[in-house]
Write a structure and sequence with these properties.
Order of helices and strands: EEEEEEEHHHHEHHH
Structural class: alpha+beta
Radius of gyration: 53 Å
Helix content: 55-70%
Number of helices: 7
Oligomer: single chain
Low-confidence stretches: none
Strand content: 15-25%
Shape: rod-shaped
Length: about 290
């Protein structure tokens, strides 16, 4: 019906290319237009002004000889004031853009190691965008944005990278665990040394207290009982202490029998041995 009345409708965000006898005549903006076909006018086609996106997957290799697939997303649109260039100059816009993307990526990524390529995705995208902007502006297209959305190495390379990272993390964990065990061992040794030192001090003080007590007992007994010598009192005290000790051992030990020397000189021998032992211990403590 529109052709019958020579009226055509152009939708929003679209322009139409009008030709007269096969020659470009005008760019028709959205709305209703009169195109007298009987005067040789016709529509050559429509051109969308909407933002379009092209995803390009390019295989290349890095500087360290790792093959990767670089996925780039190109967002572009035709310019209304250059609609005739966008319609006539390129037969396949998407193929042309893809060719430029391949050229830039395959010139940029081989200069980088794999790790650097991941870190410099923004720089790669900027290089692609600059090259496309210079090339496509002459054809009536605007490059809105270029994104490097993914860099995909071979699956075996991915596994190797993951294993390297896992090994590095395990090594750090092992070092931390070893340091923790080292600290525990040091603290344990310091605790044992401190405990032994304090136990030694306690034993030394205990022995010194025993010696002091015995000395006080001997002196007091000698004063209160005339005619006794210090040696006699000492022998009596030591023997008394000895038998008290044996009594406690017999009461607290699991054994019911304790063997001690017996004979006319046994008591004197016991007293002499105890006295000598305590005197030696006192001399060692003093030293």
């Amino acid at each position: 019906m529109g052709n019958t009345f020579c009226c055509v409708q152009v939708d929003q965000s679209t322009v139409a290319i009008k030709e007269t006898f096969g020659r470009f005549d005008d760019v028709l903006e959205p709305g209703c237009h009169w195109v007298p076909w009987f005067l040789g006018s016709q529509l050559a086609g429509h051109l969308s002004l909407r933002l379009q996106q092209l995803d390009v997957r390019c295989e290349t290799k890095t500087k360290d000889n790792v093959f990767v697939n670089v996925v780039a997303s190109i967002q572009y649109r035709a310019l209304a004031n250059k609609a005739s260039d966008a319609f006539y100059k390129l037969s396949n816009t998407r193929t042309q853009i893809q060719a430029y993307v391949f050229d830039v990526i395959r010139a940029s990524v081989p200069k980088l190691n794999l790790d650097d390529a991941f870190e410099q995705k923004t720089e790669i995208a900027k290089a692609v965008e600059d090259e496309l902007e210079k090339a496509m502006s002459a054809y009536g297209f605007e490059i809105v944005q270029t994104l490097i959305v993914d860099i995909e190495p071979d699956e075996r390379v991915k596994r190797a990278m993951n294993e390297i990272n896992a090994a590095a993390r395990m090594r750090v964990a092992a070092n931390e665990k070893a340091e923790a065990e080292k600290i525990l061992q040091i603290k344990k040794a310091e605790g044992e040394a401190e405990a032994k030192y304090l136990a030694g001090l306690g034993i030394a003080r205990q022995r010194q207290a025993i010696v002091d007590g015995l000395r006080d007992s001997v002196l007091g007994f000698s004063v209160n009982v005339p005619g006794t010598t210090a040696k006699d009192v000492m022998d009596m005290v030591l023997v008394t202490q000895y038998f008290d000790t044996m009594k406690e051992i017999g009461a607290t030990s699991k054994s019911s029998a304790v063997f001690i020397p017996h004979g006319p000189g046994a008591v004197r021998d016991v007293a002499t041995q105890i006295r000598d032992g305590l005197l030696q211990a006192s001399q060692l403590d003093t030293a």
